[in-house]
Design a protein that fits this description.
This protein is α+β, with helices and mostly antiparallel strands. Helix content is 37%, strand content 26%.
């Protein structure tokens, strides 16, 4: 996938492993909302191998405990303007507002890391 000039919103968050299936259902709903409002691509991935000896692990970065699974997620947009327009619509979407109370029972938003990124290399 070659996506020069795109803009990416990235997320990193720990989820209680016991609630991973519940989170998966919410993530599927979120993906539909993000795609409907302009995301070109939307990915949510659950950690499988976080062992590393040469750098800080995602588990350490997310401050995940042994009974948590780290989620790495991202949404790709055509550019920053498309992302900003999409996020305005996403945050106002009633379906997202309905998801938020359920998500509070699954994970702590204050522990989620988020950021917007300009694409600098695609291959």
């Amino acid at each position: 996938m070659n996506l020069p000039g795109t803009y990416i919103d990235g997320f990193l968050l720990p989820i209680p492993t016991a609630k991973l299936e519940e989170y998966h259902l919410l993530a599927e709903q979120a993906a539909a909302i993000w795609k409907e409002h302009g995301a070109l691509h939307y990915v949510e991935a659950a950690a499988d191998d976080l062992s590393t000896e040469f750098c800080r692990s995602f588990a350490a970065t997310a401050d995940a405990s042994d009974d948590e699974t780290v989620i790495f997620a991202f949404a790709i947009f055509a550019d920053r303007a498309a992302r900003d327009a999409a996020n305005s619509k996403i945050m106002a979407d009633e379906r997202l507002q309905a998801i938020c109370p359920a998500s509070a029972n699954i994970f702590d938003c204050k522990r989620m890391a988020f950021g917007g990124f300009k694409t600098i290399v695609t291959a």
